[in-house]
Amino acid sequence: MRSLRRALNSLVVSAVVITIAACGNLDTPGTKAAIEIPGVTSTSTTNPKIFKISVGSIWESDTTNTVTPQGSCSVEESTPLDEECTVTIPEAQLFYAKLRIKAEVSNENKCSIFSFFPYYFKMSNSADFKPAGAYSNFSALDCSANPIPDGCFSGAATKLVPSFKHGQNTGVYFLPGTNPLSEWTVDSPNTLRGQLNYDMGLRWFANNLADTSVGQQDYIANSMVQYRFICEDIYNDEQYRLNLKIAPDPSAGDGSDYQHSIRW
Questions:
Q1: 149 lies in a domain?
Q2: Does pTM top 0.70 for this prediction?
Q3: Which of 2, 80, 186, 259 has the maximal Cβ count within 10 Å?
Q4: How many CA atoms are closer than 13 Å to the CA of 38, on its beta-carbon side?
Q5: Residue 168 lies in a domain
Q6: b/e per residue, 231-245, with b = 16+ CB within 10 A?
Q7: Cβ contacts of residue 256 below 8 Å, gap of 6+?
């Protein structure tokens, strides 16, 4: 059983970088899910949906907050546990646009508790770490310390999760019986590089750019935690899990090696 000991006792709402309906914080440590393209209906009519994830972007300069749909993924009753879905986003939007993720639960009986664990990774093990592009006033971090400073981690989770802390607080949840829909929004890498005092790259959102076995600049091998969406029933037993991969649009055709390099 996967119980609410993962900190269902801390209910938090943040209006700055995240919008959640009846949400709290928690922590936990295939085949393909049904992928829907904007404007195209689901390919299945026989299996009722359990939940649907929609991914969109909002240009950072757009004061109307108009969402550009980038793709969606549906989990149905017949979907095996631990499915994977990939959504590609043009790299300019990955850098200059906010990321919007929306979850909508259709089956409350099989999804009494819905959890979202955004992606993040560790940037360094160094005792004197300054990330790439750090400004002159950036104070070096001791990423070899215990506990590890929050600033040694990067990725959307560090801003999407209120009071993010590795190993303690890395996700959010909501109760579909109270509200079946929730949305999360996080600022663009271009905006955040000013706030965080160092350059942000496409790796901020794109979790296919962090190779899970090979260390890279400002990335520790095997440190990545994927975007995960988990449904539990009323007994706290896990019923469905979807792993989301956000990737630069491969149709760019510029020859970039997205797996091992950062364009921005």
A1: no
A2: yes
A3: 186
A4: 12
A5: yes
A6: bbbeeeebbbbbbbb
A7: 248, 263
Query: Does the N-terminal peptide bond of residue 147 adopt cis geometry, omega within 30 degrees of 0?
Result: yes
Tens of pLDDT, residues 178-210: 999 999 999 999 999 888 888 888 899 999 887
What are the CA-CA distances from residue 114 to residues 156, 182, 227 (Å)?
Answer: 19, 10, 14
In degrees to the nearest 10, what's the CA dihedral of 179, 243, 70, 173? 20
Whole-angstrom CA distances from 172 to 22, 83, 162 are: 10, 20, 8
140 domain-assigned:
no
Q: pLDDT digits over 53-88, tens only?
A: 999 999 999 999 999 999 999 999 988 888 899 999
For 258, list phi and psi in degrees, rounded to 5. Answer: -65, -25
Question: Residue 163 falls within a domain, yes or no?
Answer: yes
